[in-house]
Amino acid sequence: MLNHDRYEIRQFYPQRRPVRERFRVNGVGVDEWMSPGYVNRPGGTGDWLLMFFPQTTDAGTVDGIITFPPSTLLIWPGGGGHYYGCGSGDWSHSWLHCDGKSINALLKEHDLPPGHGYRFDNELMSRYMRLFFEETSHYASPDEEIILGLFRLLLREVSRMNFHSATDIPAGVQSARRYIENHYRKPLQLKDIATAARMSVPHLCNVFKRCYQTSPIEYVIELRLTEAEHLLSDNNRKLADIATATGFSDQYYFSRIFTRRRGMPPGEWRRRRFVHNS
To answer: Which range of residues forms the domain containing residue 89?
Structure first.
């Protein structure tokens, strides 16, 4: 029996027919876990469905039932049937039910015909689904331009990852950079980044520097300092709070690194910024 009780987000929204909007969200789910088994909807749900699978998954496509590798996004058209799941163990998925007059044109624009699977990234998918959820759940009337823009950006990311990726940057190094950008506000060790990239620490450091002209740790520090500069613009933020918010272990280490990289202590940087903007 399938288990529908483990998920980060699982929300459906009542909608009226016929569809008049260019784009609307009918439902969104993030990291919904299922017990071993399959979902079989021969008639579909009447709307478009985008579904991302972090694990190896069996799914129905225009070419029949195919076993897809981890990190695959499936796009099913409105009115089409759905078949997906995994019989060998628990599996998870994130998904978007949607409708709209612009969907077909946007898929054509990005060379993403429905009924196929596309390589994508779990953290990116979760990020977009949370943004859809926030816009649709937190306002009485979601802004159609915002959710349409999010959908266009999502498709652009999928298209770029499948057809326009930078071939000179290995996938593992790209994964390492995304991991850093999503986790730099927390304590980070090289081994964590290397694990995300599925590379050894020495190999990651060598290839990362060749691709981005900086080391992984230097990139972490620069991201933290860049965000700290923005937070220092707020005179109500204490230095200790800024240090914690940007991933530094304490205020003293933050001040030492900031002074070394920016040529002055953070308090002095804040005072000069205030004088410059006043």
So the answer is: 9-163
